[in-house]
Amino acid sequence: KGWDxxxxxxxxxxxxxxxxxxxxxCEYESSFWFGCLESKLRHFKEKIELSPKIHSARIWPKGYxxxxxxxxxxxxxxxxxxxxxxxxxxxxxxxxxxxxxKERCYSD
Length: 108
Description:
By secondary structure, this protein is an alpha+beta fold. Helices cover 41% and strands 30% of the residues. Helix 3 packs antiparallel against helix 5 (95-107).
Protein backbone atom coordinates (compact mmCIF):
# COMPACT_ATOMS: atom_id res chain seq x y z
CA LYS A 1 0.00 0.00 0.00
CA GLY A 2 1.25 3.44 -0.90
CA TRP A 3 0.57 6.95 0.32
CA ASP A 4 -2.73 7.04 -1.57
CA UNK A 5 -4.25 4.49 0.83
CA UNK A 6 -3.33 6.72 3.77
CA UNK A 7 -5.36 9.62 2.40
CA UNK A 8 -8.40 7.60 1.32
CA UNK A 9 -11.58 8.78 3.06
CA UNK A 10 -12.83 6.48 5.79
CA UNK A 11 -16.46 5.49 5.23
CA UNK A 12 -17.46 5.39 8.89
CA UNK A 13 -21.20 5.08 8.32
CA UNK A 14 -20.77 2.23 5.83
CA UNK A 15 -18.23 0.36 7.93
CA UNK A 16 -20.45 -0.25 10.99
CA UNK A 17 -23.87 -1.85 11.41
CA UNK A 18 -25.10 -0.04 14.53
CA UNK A 19 -24.52 3.38 16.03
CA UNK A 20 -25.01 5.28 19.24
CA UNK A 21 -25.43 9.03 19.10
CA UNK A 22 -24.39 10.85 22.28
CA UNK A 23 -25.10 14.54 22.71
CA UNK A 24 -23.90 16.62 25.65
CA UNK A 25 -24.78 20.21 26.45
CA CYS A 26 -23.06 22.57 28.83
CA GLU A 27 -22.72 26.22 29.68
CA TYR A 28 -19.41 28.10 29.74
CA GLU A 29 -16.41 25.76 30.28
CA SER A 30 -17.35 23.52 27.36
CA SER A 31 -13.83 22.51 26.33
CA PHE A 32 -13.12 21.08 29.80
CA TRP A 33 -16.47 19.27 30.07
CA PHE A 34 -16.32 17.89 26.53
CA GLY A 35 -12.73 16.73 27.09
CA CYS A 36 -13.80 14.83 30.22
CA LEU A 37 -16.70 13.29 28.33
CA GLU A 38 -14.46 12.23 25.44
CA SER A 39 -12.22 10.45 27.94
CA LYS A 40 -15.24 8.62 29.37
CA LEU A 41 -16.37 7.69 25.85
CA ARG A 42 -12.95 6.15 25.12
CA HIS A 43 -13.20 4.05 28.29
CA PHE A 44 -16.75 3.03 27.31
CA LYS A 45 -15.55 1.95 23.87
CA GLU A 46 -12.69 -0.08 25.32
CA LYS A 47 -15.05 -1.76 27.81
CA ILE A 48 -17.61 -2.85 25.25
CA GLU A 49 -14.90 -4.18 22.94
CA LEU A 50 -14.22 -6.77 25.65
CA SER A 51 -17.58 -8.38 24.83
CA PRO A 52 -17.07 -11.49 22.69
CA LYS A 53 -20.01 -10.49 20.48
CA ILE A 54 -18.60 -7.03 19.67
CA HIS A 55 -15.99 -7.32 16.93
CA SER A 56 -15.21 -3.64 16.57
CA ALA A 57 -16.22 -0.28 18.00
CA ARG A 58 -15.07 3.12 16.87
CA ILE A 59 -15.76 6.67 17.96
CA TRP A 60 -16.11 9.09 15.09
CA PRO A 61 -12.85 10.94 15.61
CA LYS A 62 -14.34 14.38 16.00
CA GLY A 63 -17.39 15.57 17.92
CA TYR A 64 -19.80 17.92 16.21
CA UNK A 65 -20.03 21.17 18.17
CA UNK A 66 -22.97 23.55 18.02
CA UNK A 67 -23.57 26.83 19.82
CA UNK A 68 -27.10 27.88 20.66
CA UNK A 69 -26.67 31.33 19.21
CA UNK A 70 -25.08 34.69 19.81
CA UNK A 71 -27.00 35.42 23.01
CA UNK A 72 -26.79 31.99 24.64
CA UNK A 73 -23.74 30.64 26.43
CA UNK A 74 -24.82 27.02 25.91
CA UNK A 75 -22.87 24.69 23.61
CA UNK A 76 -23.69 21.15 22.61
CA UNK A 77 -21.48 18.49 21.10
CA UNK A 78 -22.47 15.20 19.46
CA UNK A 79 -20.39 12.05 19.06
CA UNK A 80 -21.17 8.88 17.13
CA UNK A 81 -19.92 5.42 18.10
CA UNK A 82 -20.13 2.68 15.50
CA UNK A 83 -20.39 -1.02 16.42
CA UNK A 84 -19.80 -4.20 14.50
CA UNK A 85 -20.80 -7.44 16.14
CA UNK A 86 -22.28 -10.87 15.74
CA UNK A 87 -25.90 -11.51 16.49
CA UNK A 88 -28.78 -9.12 16.61
CA UNK A 89 -29.68 -6.45 19.13
CA UNK A 90 -26.20 -5.14 19.85
CA UNK A 91 -27.81 -2.40 21.93
CA UNK A 92 -28.89 -5.04 24.48
CA UNK A 93 -25.32 -6.33 24.75
CA UNK A 94 -23.93 -2.92 25.70
CA UNK A 95 -26.86 -1.72 27.84
CA UNK A 96 -25.12 -2.24 31.22
CA UNK A 97 -21.94 -0.50 30.03
CA UNK A 98 -23.98 2.41 28.69
CA UNK A 99 -25.77 2.81 32.05
CA UNK A 100 -22.36 2.88 33.77
CA UNK A 101 -21.19 5.59 31.33
CA LYS A 102 -24.32 7.63 31.99
CA GLU A 103 -23.90 7.28 35.76
CA ARG A 104 -20.24 8.40 35.57
CA CYS A 105 -21.16 11.43 33.49
CA TYR A 106 -23.86 12.59 35.91
CA SER A 107 -21.71 11.99 38.99
CA ASP A 108 -18.94 14.38 37.89
